[in-house]
Amino acid sequence: MNDNLSPRRERSGHDLVPFRWRPIGDKVLLTSAFGDWTFVSPDELAAIRRGEIAPELRGRLSERRFIASEVDFERVRARLTHKKRFLNYGPNLHVMVVTLRCNETCVYCHSSRASMETEGVDMQPAVAEKTVDLILQSTSPRVTIEFQGGEPLANFPVIQHVIEYAKQRNERIGKELEFALVSNLGMMTEQKLDYLVANRVQICTSVDGPQPLHDKQRVLAGGSAFREASRWIAEINRRYVAAGLDPVLYHVEALLTVTRTALDHPREIVDTYRELGCRAIFLRPLDPFGFAKKKATAAAIEYERRRYLDFYGQALEYILELNRKGEQMLERYAAIFLTKILTDDDPNFLDIRSPCGAGIGQLAYNYDGRVFTCDEGRMLSHAGDDLFAIGDVRTSRHREIVTHETVRALLAASNLDAQPDCVNCAYNPYCGVCPVHNYATQGSIHGRMRESHLCAVHKGIQDKLFERLANGDAEELEILRRWTTVRERAEFVHCPT
């Protein structure tokens, strides 16, 4: 029995829409191409395959839009159009790598950072302006410029120049403009923070767990990376409150990279985030880029994804336990998938959508002006592989970049309805693949999903979520639904005057 494939995906003679199925505990999950889902028993699935559907089962299938003759297909078309509306826009996330220099040494550094003394790896103002000019050519009505590194605060003057130049240029162009900063906070100062808060820059950092774990993995010469990050997280959150912003919505976001050492500490890691005032935690596994791909490093920090899923399950259980006690905290992977599963919306997380966002939802701009399909493609370039380089800010036009043959190839490779395994997977309506990850791990942008670590993670997380949807009590189901709530952080949007 193939746990992903409905043996007969046609409607047969019993008026069902085509469906896919997957065992979940003692139940069977059915999903339609429209994203609808329901649970049946193994005996009921056998009856469906025989074309013998009892009235009670037919009623449940009808309620979940599995009876073809009763489906309002115009409404279905509108739902799918809404969910896939990101295809109408163009790149909305623009990653600017303003420097490769970094003050910390992370054991898994995905960006192949350079030392603080390295010369020639800072973006120059002229290149920054050309980058902004290209970004504002995007057809997306809203664009986010995200400053990355290295440690972007090491080139703070260019960050300031970009913000001022982009706002000035956008007065004529008229887009909704946002700025974000991904920083380890080790080079933050009161003066820099004054500027970032005044210019409504969203700030995100990395926290790998309690201080011993964080400082082991993210080494700050002459100090504690954890203490620097934690004190600035507290100060930034204090500034938001002082500005009258809702602390539930406005707070520093932090990302976790799960290494082998982290696997034994799910509750301690969640507690660290609680103590820092973080209301969301993103339990990300290792990515195969930068230093993490080196054999010696991987031997020390890599792990079987089965162990990661055990870790994820324990952390998820603890987060739900905290929610039952009245604490508001969510896990970001779960929130992304649950939004797709429980609502008629899609959070447009670029790595988990079909097709993926490479080139059409995201572009990455290196410090030297080269343009890449995505940040992962840029990371591979620093390891010596320029396959995902698609232009240069000094010579390329937006249309040339987004119609580049590499972008077209990635679109085809990340269309789940064209993936041999994904086309038959029950999680097809909610999932996504990363062709650059496939290339880095398997040598092909198409990859082989049944051998993919990332596919194992996505399936495993969705298995755990559907188990809870199948067996959770009313309180837990309400918590999971609450995680799908999206609130606009309007105070961070710059609109032309």
List the quaternary state of the chains.
single chain
Spatial strand sequence of the major β-sheet: 12-11-10-8-7-6-4-13-14-15
State Rg.
Answer: 23 Å
Q: What is the number of beta strands?
A: 15
Helix content: 25-40%
* Major sheet description: 10 strands, mixed
Average pLDDT figure: 93
Distance between the termini: 61 Å
Measured by DSSP, the beta-strand proportion falls in: 5-15%
Compact description:
40% of the residues lie in helices and 14% in strands. It has 497 residues and is of the alpha/beta class.
Write the layout of secondary structure elements.
Layout: E1 19-24, E2 27-32, E3 37-40, H1 42-50, H2 55-63, H3 73-83, E4 93-97, E5 104-106, H4 125-135, E6 142-148, H5 156-173, E7 176-182, H6 190-198, E8 201-206, H7 211-217, E9 218-220, H8 225-242, E10 253-258, H9 266-275, E11 280-285, H10 295-301, H11 305-324, E12 330-331, H12 332-342, E13 362-365, E14 370-372, H13 375-382, E15 389-392, H14 398-402, H15 405-413, H16 435-442, H17 453-471, H18 474-482
Parallel strand pairs: 4-6, 4-13, 6-7, 7-8, 8-10, 10-11, 11-12
Antiparallel strand pairs: 1-2, 2-3, 5-9, 13-14, 14-15
Helix pairs in contact: 4-5, 9-11, 11-17
Summarize the structure in words:
With about 500 residues, the chain is an alpha/beta fold. The protein is built from 18 helices and 15 strands. It has helices spanning about 40-50, 55-65, 75-85, 125-135, 155-175, 190-200, 210-215, 225-240, 265-275, 295-300, 305-325, 330-340, 375-380, 400, 405-415, 435-440, 455-470, 475-480, and strands at about 20-25, 25-30, 35-40, 95, 105, 140-150, 175-180, 200-205, 220, 255-260, 280-285, 330, 360-365, 370, 390. It has a ten-stranded mixed β-sheet, sandwiched between helices. It has a three-stranded antiparallel β-sheet with strand order 1-2-3. A two-stranded antiparallel sheet has the order 5-9. The longest helix is centred in the middle third of the chain and has 20 residues, at about 305-325. It is globular, with a radius of gyration of 23 Å. The termini are far apart.
